[in-house]
């Protein structure tokens, strides 16, 4: 049976280090590797700072993903494998923020939208996965519209700011240095823009990007080559770049400690990490990373528990609708091919009849219209009962019956045809 299977590596079981080691390449690389497998008809990948998820449509999806994880060297201790229905339910919960480190966070919905676009552009997403991800995006929007699940800290970025605020007993009069002006850095800056502090410095390798964000949200753009000077002035440094190496090294931090009386708080929310872990050995340095934000999550969890119950009710309702949608698709795909076969045959035989009659009589438009209506009516009446029976079989998950119908009429399963069309 060709359905969705998924593999999930997330903060629920994996540490920051294990997440970093899980996969070092780009999403497009994973999509290319997965889609090249002869048993994978569709695939999609979600990669964030605290999760890596792979979805495939395959008759042997669990086996394909298990061997893929093994080839990546991923420990079975941190990976979870889901079947079709588990994958769908997990995806709906994920889009609503119920699987996030910060319950109800909004960022994951945007990341799912991005994944949807990347996979479609790569040509690896077909009708089966598109149905699932379209529903997930719709449900994620509905959960945030009809409940307060995203009230308060709703992202890793805002949680980082809350952590800084808590540890320093307030940010008033503090100097904050944000390294990185990408998605996460921008979210940090937005969260800071509502706080009462002295100044926010924005550092980026491309000064112009930092300047644009500083002009938009307030703050001072910093040239990356001047990073040393601004680390010395900072009370808090929040780093959120996409660099593959450390951007804040031990030597830089060590120089910033000269003549410092107060502690320096470093918060690393990048994956892979931006700040050399060795800085924690330095005096007056406090280092926190994504793992430490679990504390913020625990506090938010209690506050949002009642809202999460409301979201789960929405998910259960939408999940049933999604399952029924897939059931209809199974029958509709088969019926589409069956109708195509019968209508092709009808047209062929009608044309033959018109040609034969034309040998004896002049056949005009009226006669052709009568023959067309007659053959169409016969075809529709012949197909009426099979249509009802096949849809009923799909509704009650009678896979054996649907497979027999495919064999009887020599119809290939939907996913196999998609794979052939992509080659």
From TrEMBL:
<feature type="domain" description="Tetrapyrrole biosynthesis glutamyl-tRNA reductase dimerisation">
    <location>
        <begin position="310"/>
        <end position="411"/>
    </location>
</feature>
<keyword id="KW-0560">Oxidoreductase</keyword>
<dbReference type="InterPro" id="IPR015895">
    <property type="entry name" value="4pyrrol_synth_GluRdtase_N"/>
</dbReference>
<feature type="site" description="Important for activity">
    <location>
        <position position="90"/>
    </location>
</feature>
<dbReference type="Pfam" id="PF00745">
    <property type="entry name" value="GlutR_dimer"/>
</dbReference>
<dbReference type="GO" id="GO:0050661">
    <property type="term" value="F:NADP binding"/>
</dbReference>
<dbReference type="InterPro" id="IPR036453">
    <property type="entry name" value="GluRdtase_dimer_dom_sf"/>
</dbReference>
<feature type="binding site">
    <location>
        <begin position="105"/>
        <end position="107"/>
    </location>
    <ligand>
        <name>substrate</name>
    </ligand>
</feature>
<protein>
    <recommendedName>
        <fullName>Glutamyl-tRNA reductase</fullName>
        <ecNumber>1.2.1.70</ecNumber>
    </recommendedName>
</protein>
<feature type="binding site">
    <location>
        <position position="100"/>
    </location>
    <ligand>
        <name>substrate</name>
    </ligand>
</feature>
<feature type="binding site">
    <location>
        <position position="111"/>
    </location>
    <ligand>
        <name>substrate</name>
    </ligand>
</feature>
<feature type="domain" description="Glutamyl-tRNA reductase N-terminal">
    <location>
        <begin position="9"/>
        <end position="147"/>
    </location>
</feature>
<feature type="binding site">
    <location>
        <begin position="48"/>
        <end position="51"/>
    </location>
    <ligand>
        <name>substrate</name>
    </ligand>
</feature>
<feature type="domain" description="Quinate/shikimate 5-dehydrogenase/glutamyl-tRNA reductase">
    <location>
        <begin position="162"/>
        <end position="295"/>
    </location>
</feature>
<comment type="similarity">
    <text>Belongs to the glutamyl-tRNA reductase family.</text>
</comment>
<comment type="subunit">
    <text>Homodimer.</text>
</comment>
<keyword id="KW-0521">NADP</keyword>
<dbReference type="InterPro" id="IPR006151">
    <property type="entry name" value="Shikm_DH/Glu-tRNA_Rdtase"/>
</dbReference>
<dbReference type="GO" id="GO:0019353">
    <property type="term" value="P:protoporphyrinogen IX biosynthetic process from glutamate"/>
</dbReference>
<feature type="active site" description="Nucleophile">
    <location>
        <position position="49"/>
    </location>
</feature>
<dbReference type="GO" id="GO:0008883">
    <property type="term" value="F:glutamyl-tRNA reductase activity"/>
</dbReference>
<dbReference type="InterPro" id="IPR015896">
    <property type="entry name" value="4pyrrol_synth_GluRdtase_dimer"/>
</dbReference>
<comment type="function">
    <text>Catalyzes the NADPH-dependent reduction of glutamyl-tRNA(Glu) to glutamate 1-semialdehyde (GSA).</text>
</comment>
<dbReference type="Pfam" id="PF05201">
    <property type="entry name" value="GlutR_N"/>
</dbReference>
<dbReference type="InterPro" id="IPR036291">
    <property type="entry name" value="NAD(P)-bd_dom_sf"/>
</dbReference>
<dbReference type="InterPro" id="IPR036343">
    <property type="entry name" value="GluRdtase_N_sf"/>
</dbReference>
<dbReference type="InterPro" id="IPR000343">
    <property type="entry name" value="4pyrrol_synth_GluRdtase"/>
</dbReference>
<dbReference type="Pfam" id="PF01488">
    <property type="entry name" value="Shikimate_DH"/>
</dbReference>
<keyword id="KW-0627">Porphyrin biosynthesis</keyword>
<feature type="binding site">
    <location>
        <begin position="180"/>
        <end position="185"/>
    </location>
    <ligand>
        <name>NADP(+)</name>
    </ligand>
</feature>
<comment type="pathway">
    <text>Porphyrin-containing compound metabolism; protoporphyrin-IX biosynthesis; 5-aminolevulinate from L-glutamyl-tRNA(Glu): step 1/2.</text>
</comment>
<dbReference type="InterPro" id="IPR018214">
    <property type="entry name" value="GluRdtase_CS"/>
</dbReference>
């Amino acid at each position: 049976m060709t359905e969705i299977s998924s593999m999930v590596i997330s903060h629920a079981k994996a540490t920051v280090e294990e997440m970093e080691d899980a996969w070092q390449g780009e999403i497009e690389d994973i999509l290319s590797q997965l889609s090249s497998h002869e048993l994978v008809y569709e695939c999609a990948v979600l990669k964030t700072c605290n999760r890596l998820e792979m979805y495939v449509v395959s008759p042997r999806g669990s086996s394909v993903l298990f061997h893929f994880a093994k080839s990546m060297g991923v420990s079975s201790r941190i990976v979870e494998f889901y079947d079709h229905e588990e994958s769908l339910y997990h995806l709906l919960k994920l889009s609503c923020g119920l699987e996030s480190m910060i319950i109800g966070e909004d960022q994951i919905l945007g990341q799912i939208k991005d994944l949807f676009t990347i996979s479609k552009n790569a040509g690896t997403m077909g009708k089966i996965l598109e149905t699932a991800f379209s529903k997930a995006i719709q449900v994620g929007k509905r959960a945030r519209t009809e409940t307060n699940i995203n009230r308060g800290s709703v992202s890793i970025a805002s949680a980082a700011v809350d952590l800084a605020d808590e540890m320093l007993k307030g940010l008033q009069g503090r100097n904050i240095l944000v390294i990185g002006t990408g998605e996460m850095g921008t979210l940090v800056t937005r969260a800071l823009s509502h706080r009462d502090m002295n100044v926010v410095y924005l550092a980026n390798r491309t000064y112009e990007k930092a300047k644009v964000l500083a002009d938009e949200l307030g703050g001072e753009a910093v040239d990356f080559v001047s990073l040393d000077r601004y680390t010395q002035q900072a009370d808090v440094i929040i780093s959120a770049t996409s660099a593959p190496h450390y951007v804040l090294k031990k030597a830089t931090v060590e120089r910033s400690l000269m003549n410092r009386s107060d502690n320096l708080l470093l918060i690393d929310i990048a994956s892979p990490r931006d700040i050399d872990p060795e800085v924690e050995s330095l005096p007056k340095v406090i280092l926190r990373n994504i793992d430490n934000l679990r504390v913020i999550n625990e506090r938010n969890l209690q506050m949002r528990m009642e809202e999460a119950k409301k979201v789960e009710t929405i998910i259960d309702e939408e999940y049933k609708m999604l399952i029924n949608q897939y059931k209809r698709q199974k029958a509709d795909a088969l019926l589409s091919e069956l109708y195509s076969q019968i209508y092709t045959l009808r047209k062929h035989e009608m044309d033959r009849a018109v040609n034969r009659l034309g040998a004896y009589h002049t056949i005009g438009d009226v006669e052709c219209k009568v023959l067309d209506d007659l053959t169409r009516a016969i075809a529709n009446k012949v197909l009426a009962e099979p249509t009802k029976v096949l849809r009923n079989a799909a509704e009650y998950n009678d896979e054996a019956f649907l497979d027999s119908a495919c064999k009887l009429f020599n119809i290939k399963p939907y996913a196999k045809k998609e794979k052939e069309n992509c080659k």
